[in-house]
Amino acid sequence: MAHCEQVPAAVRTVDTVLARMRVLDATLPARDGVAVFNRVYLTVTEAVDRHIDGGRFPDAGSAIALDVRFAQRYLSAVDTLEDGRRPPACWRPLFQFRRHPGVRPLQFALAGINAHIGHDLALAVVDTCRTLGCEPVDLEDEFDRVGDLLVTLEERVREELMPGPDLLQIADPLTHLLGSWSLDRARDATWAAARALWALRRLPDVAGEFTDRLDAAVGFAGRMLLTPLPD
């Protein structure tokens, strides 16, 4: 396996993305859908940072680069919206429904995870490969370790935000809605998409069309996750 080149100074730290997420956490209303996802993602990014500092990634430099490129895509979508511009299709459902009273916190959290994993992570892998001069296979360990952290967090989020006692959950429409989405499946699809995009990098028109279709498909799944439900 080839080694990635030295990480450029611009992507050597996660401090800037953590600082931005903490500002959002402090300023957004707690029930706002973006705030719900942001709290989840802040927890993930802090966990990744601790794992990097603890030497739990084989290539810390590549892990930092991937983590920062990944986070920047979410923060860029938020900034795009705040600037009055049109964000990527994958993020639009969360931004549009963020204050809807019929959408529950767990739906907001998973819709954000869907957008970020399903679309942003594939593009972040390609961004990182271009930056570091490596291939997707060189980032597979880092990709898998970040994904494992996300799966663990998703399980905890479902437990904390799923309303009602276990015996009643089977009758809750939220149970049926969210049972149709899996982070494991989304992660597998994302890795395949990242490899495809990398293979298409010398065909910009085809790569652009592939990216647009990926964005739209992930946005459609997010819209389904945010279906308003009765209390």
TrEMBL record:
Pfam families for this protein: DUF5995
Organism: Streptomyces vinaceusdrappus
Name the record gives this protein: DUF5995 family protein
Domain of life: Bacteria
InterPro entries, per the entry: DUF5995 (IPR046037)
